[in-house]
Amino acid sequence: MLRLILFLALLAAVAVGLSWLADRPGEISITWQGYQIETSVLVGIAAVLATCIAFLILWSILRFVLRLPSFIALTTRVRRRNKGYQALTRGMIAAAAGDMRYAARATREAEKLIGQDPLTLLLRAQTAQLEGDRALSEKTFAQMVEDPQTRLLGLRGLHAEALRRGDADSAHLYAAQAQAIAPLTWAGEALLDWHVRRAEWAPALDIVEANRKHKLTESDAAERQRAVLLTAQARDQADSHPDQALRDAREAAKLAPSLVPAHILAAQLLARRGDLRKASRLVESVWRITPHPELAETYVHLRAGDAAQERYERAQRLADLMPQDAESALALARAAMDARHFDKARAALGPLLITEERPSRRLCLLMADLEQMEHGAQSGPVREWLARAARAPRDAAWIADGMISDRWEPASPVTGKLDAFRWDVPQERLTGAVENIALEGLPVITAEAEPASADAPVPPRPKPLASQALYPMPAVPDDPGPGADEKDETERRFS
Q1: What's this model's pTM, rounded to 2 decimal places?
Q2: Residues 187-231: tens digit of each pLDDT
Q3: Is 367 exposed, middle or buried (0-12, 13-18, 19+ CB in 10 A)?
Q4: CA angle (105, 110, 113) in 5-degree steps
Q5: What are 36's strand-pairing partners?
Q6: Rounded CA gap, 400 and 40, in Å?
Q7: What is the pLDDT of residues 383-422, one digit of tens each?
């Protein structure tokens, strides 16, 4: 709108000027080389303007002719660059698709048309990785490091190549250089893994805090990582610096309420200081949330030197907090057996034997111990329960990357990943004979439970029939099994 107003104002000014000149006619006389030209002022002004316009047109034509070679060269470069980027695009797609030959051909074409462009360097590095040429790949990434625009990309590529050849020290150096330039997720994770693998908990805590500060890690994940590191640090310092270890363990328990090892360590350190009441309350609060066998073991043995009856009473108090949970029954039964209360142990384990479709290995072994303590090692029920335990489903354990550990660890022994251990039941697969059941109208089922690999599928388990026992107690090969009297006695014990 403003431009239109200015244009109209200029047009009006020109019209007024021309009108003013028309109302005031005059004459212009020019004498040059014997020629005399006489004309009016208006015509003279028009002639001057026409002459200027003609000179401008001639100058533009001359300038275009003089700059024509540079225009042709520029057009050629643009066309060449466009072709180069088209080849670069094709090469990137081929490298992502794994087409090694086409990616190599596109790389050569792009380098010929574009030259040492950051994207051509990246394509060359990717193509070298596809071809397995590690030397060329590292050389290309090293060239990227020299350019400020591609320095971080080059450092990441060198870090990856160092990991491939197993050079952890060089990989750590590249990650540290990248982290010093700019906070990056991959660099922060690499530095954290480096310190965790070497059990350097204090530097690892600093890395976790830096990642959280720069928002490279979510707050919840950072708190969990910090809790795991504090637990590991407290465990290492439990003997040398018990006060600091207790502070770290309590902070870890506060940051991650579901981290059972932190609560166990804090309770043990409190009990070592003589604060049995605080230690008991701590275990009881966690037991209400996550019943765990290690929590029960810690709670029952908080005070060294307690008699078996005192440990049984403590187990009874713990079981009363979660009376419907299987861990409560198992802990109470074990304490009752130690106190020689065999009837109470059977009363605790009886509901589990009735409700569980297949008693777990721990339950079968516990029943074998109970039979041995009460009736001797040579009794038939002992061998029966041991036979069932050999084929019983596994109990929950600490598992990380397919490895089963007797105790929790802050990092995986396979990959070194922080907080990799989970309390879970190992997967099983059916490969051999567990039970042979021939029912009328049904085929014979032949299967054996064995630990499965991480990627092995778990086949569905057949549903039991209401009127038949799908998992009867097997007889030991060298023992014909209990007689009629022993069977009646066994039924009477759990009835």
Answers
A1: 0.70
A2: 999 999 999 999 999 999 999 999 999 999 999 999 999 999 999
A3: buried
A4: 125
A5: 31
A6: 104
A7: 999 999 999 999 999 999 989 999 999 999 998 999 999 9
